[in-house]
Amino acid sequence: MGGKRERRASDLQRELDAHLELETERLRETGLSEDDAHRAAHLDLGNATSLRETVFELGAFSRIERWLADLRYAVRSLLHNPGFAVVSILSLGLGIGAATAIFTIADQALLKALPVKDPDRLELLTWDGAFIGGSTRGWEESFSYPTFRELEAGRPEALSGIAARYQTQATLDGATSASRVSVETVSGGYFDVLGVTAVLGRTLLPEDDEERDGEPWAVLAYDCWRDRFAADPQVIGTTIRLNSYPFTVIGVAQPGFKGFESLRPADLFVPLQMQAAVTPTWDHRDRRDSIWLNIFARLAPGVDASQAEAALMLPYAGVLRQDLEAHARNQETQDRYLRNTLHFSDASQGFGGTRELVAKPLHVLIAMVGLLLLITCVNVANLFVVRSAKRAREIAVRASLGASRAAMVRLVFAECLLLAAAGAALALVVARVGAAALVRMVPSDLMGIVFETTPDWRVLGFTAAVALATALFFGLAPAIQAARRSSATALKDEAGSVASGRGHSRLRRTLVGTQVALSLILLAVAGLFGKSLEKVFEAQPGLDVETLLAFFVNPSEHGYDGERARRLALDLEQRLKLQPGVLAVGVTTDPLLAGANGQNTIAVEGYQPGQDENMQAGANYALPGFFEAAGIPLLAGRDFSERDTIGAPLAVIVDETFANRFLGSPTEAVGRRVGYALGKGPLPYEIVGVVADHKAVNLREKPIPRTYFPLLQREKVDLMTFYLRAKGAPSGLAGAAQRAVTEIDPDLAVFGVKTLEQQAEETHYVERLFARLSAAFAALATLIAAVGLYGVAAFSVARRTREIGVRVALGAEPGGVFRMVLREALTLAAAGMAIGIPLALGVAKLVESQLYGVGAFDPVVAFGAVGALLTACSLAAVFPARRATRIAPMAALRHD
Fold it and tell me: Are 463 and 100 in contact (CB under 8 A)?
């Protein structure tokens, strides 16, 4: 075989020699001198191509060998052009790295299935229709505990299993200190329905969840066992204390399983029948009007979702009738409630509540990073077009020596693949750093969301796929140009000149215009998000955000009953007032500006609600003095007092919006009565005061009816939020808060210590995330666009060196030459902006729902984006323009 190859190569070499002789003669006929024609014909393609590689070009060896030869040549070629290679690799590394960083997060939030058996066979139950209850623990994806038990008992054969779960926070008592853990209370069939096994011990079984408050078993999540219990195999059978209640560890779940909501990893799993121990002040297992459980099911073999959904409607209809027996309604409400329907939704990724929270931000970020990646590809394509133009003679000689168009395209793509591979390697580093930075932007205590930043095989596969796609994208146009390039045209150009045909020029200008247009889109979006964030923090919250420090305690998790918890609140309030630097102390149950607030369905004395009118009002509990401490003005009536205790007349304080909407005015509201819509008999609460409107959920919140009840009249007290009003910087009171709590009860856990200003910033992390990342993407895109424009302008000046020299020799002023080059570059930028402006407006319309206090078209943002991009393009064009003014006529005329 080797002898045949050598003979074939020898034959081809003789053919090549003859071909070179003929080519030399032909080149002389084009006007070249004999020496120039001889050099061109014997050009060894950049002094890098050996005889063996030339023979490969003529088809001597296999396709694989030709590709290997092309890759070796591409390596040498890039090493001879380090500037081009470095700029291309850096551009690709940043572009692909940003895309990979976003994908690392998006994959976990939007794409990855639960690590369970056949996740595609899991279905989440949802409902549609009317609701009989008042305040809720969830919405259409939640059900009452009695509903679950009745559906479980009536499970049709179309389902192989049905299970329920609820997730919350609790306190795990440790050897030296208590810590917060995430607990998933689950039905006995939870692990069996999911197909999850134990790596140690066993999982929960149906019989573990039969007796009310009967089996205090706990199954540890694998990560919790590894991190909190040092992967001790002897943990099985030990006792842990959860909210001071003893639980026995019976197993450790399989590695990788983090619960039914993987973005909010559970630390341990306990039976639903132990709910009272996990949420000591809140146990709704007997209430049909409180929906708080997520129910999911596994389809039986051979059954599709629609069949199982129809089969489950029969037991669900029985549930609806049972609900109405317990909570009678008028005939119209009953008829509407009985028309409720049950639906299945894909549960392969688990519960979607947290995914929905991050889905919109991620979709916007994916779109922005996609634009950035497109700009990167266009920039590298532009670099290749310029490089292709400079290599026109080389490509022409290859064509004249018999190289096919496919061979020339292959040469271009070999370089593209090498650059893409190097860019992908750099991208993995950028992605790891970028993903970690992105996760740090998300508040650590935001719903307990946890993201992994270590790339797995899916991330590596994505990076490789994006790198290959970008290689094809930015290599396509240069490859086509190389294939279409006429060898005669290139060889007619003067030797050594920087050649460029009209096709190359048009393509370069098109690519740069595209970069400018796409960069303008990102600049406009960044401006809108930045201004929206500014408007959010300019909003008047109606309370003294800058002076307050907040922290939480939960006495119910440490065995405190209602009376003892209320006494703790008063004692701790008095002790905190004595701490240095504390001006006032306020206490509520639900925290302010933390993204959530309790609500109740209310009834108001003398007010008849309209059909389907929303009668929800914000609900919170407060100690006397809270409004003064928080800086919320009292408009009418009085504040709570220590006489508003259990046994005293029930009191309530409402806000101005409540008073105006339901009762006419603040002064008219005082003395009127309110109650819960589901209550019977006279309305029990008397309005004793009206406070000014203020924001309680977040800074974007619109005024809503809001109610405050005396904390001293609450039977069961769990979470309490303390607010310290400081003389100076509120952050300096953190130590005082911890000392005061420790002096009263050293075992009482203090958590969530932060200023109210920090709390507001964390609540608005989405706006901050958008503003920061869009600004970073826009800055990078603008830099890339400016580099692209600089390249085109510099190349144009180099190509027109003789022309400019002649202009100067004929009397052209340097200023005129400067303006000519600058005008051409800015005309190109203006053309890109003309395309980008309507596109930017369209994109702004798509993200308008994420904005606050600013519309899709904002003149300040629009002019600012155009001005910033125009400034960047002007700076990019200045350097080539200045270089043009320094061209000497004599040197230009001698220029090759």
Answer: yes
**Residue 43, both tokens:** 């050009």
Amino acid of residue 324: L
Q: Measured between alpha carbons, how far is 629 from 418 in angstroms, rounded to an integer?
A: 64
Given a contact cutoff of 8 angstroms between Cβ atoms, the answer to whether 189 and 161 are in contact is yes
DSSP structural state of residue 659: I
Q: How far apart are CA 589 and CA 719, in angstroms?
A: 6
Nearest to 357 by CA among 635, 67, 595: 595
| Residues making up the chain, counted from first to last | 896
CA-CA distance, 452 to 410, in Å (whole number)?
A: 39
Tokens 């939870």 belong to residue = 190
**pLDDT value of position 49:** 42
Q: How far is CA 289 from each of CA 133, 341, 600, rounded to the nearest angstrom?
A: 4, 17, 13
Q: What is the number of other CB atoms lying within 10 angstroms of the CB of residue 157?
A: 9
The values of phi and psi at residue 231, to 5°, are 55, 40
For 690, list phi and psi in degrees, rounded to 5.
Answer: -130, 125
Query: What stretch of H or E contains 166?
Result: strand 159-173
Are 735 and 729 a contacting pair, CB within 8 Å? no
CA–CA separation, 471 and 417 (whole Å): 6
CB-CB neighbours of 703 under 10 Å? 15
The mean pLDDT of 333-361, rounded to a whole number, is 83
The answer to whether 529 and 418 are in contact (CB under 8 A) is no
Q: How far is CA 755 from CA 447, 726, 730, in A?
A: 19, 10, 6
Within 13 Å of residue 72, how many CA atoms lie on the same side as its CB?
Answer: 13
- What are the tens digits of pLDDT across the range 257-311? 999 988 889 999 999 999 999 998 888 899 888 889 999 999 999 999 999 999 9
Where would I find the H helices in 327-456? 331-338, 353-390, 392-400, 405-441
Would you state the structure tokens that stand for residue 129, as one six-digit string? Answer: 């229709």
* Residue 603 and residue 754 in contact, taking contact as beta carbons nearer than 8 Å: no
Q: Which of 302, 320, 401, 359 is nearest to 108 (CA)?
A: 359
Q: Mean pLDDT, to the nearest integer, of 808-835?
A: 85
d(CA 135, CA 599): 6
* Closest listed residue to residue 181, CA positions, set 213, 219, 138, 210: 219
Residue 243 and residue 233: Cα distance in Å, rounded? 24
The SS3 assignment for 497 reads coil
- Distance CA(277)–CA(214), nearest Å, equals 11
| Residues in Cβ contact with 14 at an 8 Å cutoff, skipping those fewer than 6 apart | none
What average pLDDT does this structure show over 345-362? 80
691 in Cβ contact with 586 (< 8 Å) = no
d(CA 27, CA 793) in angstroms, rounded, equals 32
| DSSP-assigned beta bridge partners for residue 342 | 127
Per the CB < 8 A criterion, the answer to whether 689 and 634 are in contact is yes
CB 485 within 8 A of CB 758: no
The answer for residues whose C-beta is within 8 angstroms of residue 665's C-beta and 6 or more apart is: 659
Cα–Cα distance for residue pair 499/501, rounded to 1 Å = 7
pTM across the whole model: 0.75
How confident is the model over 169-210, as pLDDT tens digits? 898 887 566 788 999 999 999 999 999 999 999 999 999 999
Let me know: does 114 contact 262? Beta carbons within 8 Å. Answer: yes
